[in-house]
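Thread: Newbie trying to understand structure tokens

Hi all, I'm a second-year student working on a class project, and my supervisor (Dr. K.) asked me to get a predicted structure for one chain before our next meeting. I've only ever worked with sequences, so writing a 3D structure as a token string is new to me. If someone could post the tokens and maybe explain what I'm looking at, I'd be very grateful. Here's the chain:
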Amino acid sequence: MADTAEREQGQKSESLLTVIIALAMNALIAVAKSIVAIITGSASMVAEAAHSWADAGNEIFLLVAERRAGQKRDTTHPFGYGREAYVWSMFAAFGLFGAGAVVSVWHGISVLGHEEPETSYTWAYAVLAIAFVLESVSFVQATRQTRSEARALGLRPLKFIANTSNPTLRAVFAEDAAALIGLVIAGLGIFLHQVTGNAVWDALGSILVGLLLGVVAIFLISRNRDYLVGQAVRPELWERAFDALHDSPEVERITFLHLEFVGPGRVFLVAAVDLTGNDTESQVADRLAALGHEVEKHDLVELAMITLSRTDAPSLERPTVS
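---
Reply by user tm_fold:
Sure, no problem. This is what the structure looks like when written as tokens:
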């Protein structure tokens, strides 16, 4: 258990580092893009500036999520504060949608069909290149953490990102990936405007960046909603919990087992079991309490509630792996 607890603490520290790196990179990029957007008047660059400011603001929400979700449970929050991570990550996703997607699409539509004044795009290309490098630094950190944690669970990185209970890592990974794609779209829009003299390409670049951010924001909002309303654990984690209970010398059979996430890497476990032996009521109560406390020693379990099975309840069987 000590090794697992140390690994979980390490993952929390790395998530915090991932968010801090993303915040620093996005703040620098947002300032640079804003200055060049003013110089060039490029619609795509305005969209990119809005995107980076939205990302920088979102990282602050994610920092709050990391801090609030790490609090220990108390009498007012018996399931802990883990779901705070999904609340603040939801705010960040709404920020990405409003300040990033909507602003970019609106600005692109507003300049569509209007000729932009001729200007030198040297600064635009320069800041896009610098932004690509800085975004890559943040993305490499998010990717490194993603691959490490996905490998530990035997999952592919993208499947892990879609299913992880860590909303801050998912948000940084998705936003950084969208940022890199958005930079390519913005650069292409500026280039086509330059070589054709038609500002429609630049406006279309802004709209496409906005639509991309909208898709990412909706994905993040959907996943945070799932965890806020009670996301059940993956089948393989349920099977591990079933095996651990079933193999306990205290348990004769299991008739009910439910696990759902109450925070990043934290679950609420409910089970109904038959105990071995034929003890008195008070002895059974003590044994159930002791079994619950033993289960809660696992670093993934925030709270465990274990009760006696009904005598007519059928036994649960472990699913057969095909």
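A couple of things are worth pointing out once you decode it. The chain has two domains: 2-229, 235-308. The chain has nine helices and three strands. Feel free to ask follow-ups in this thread.
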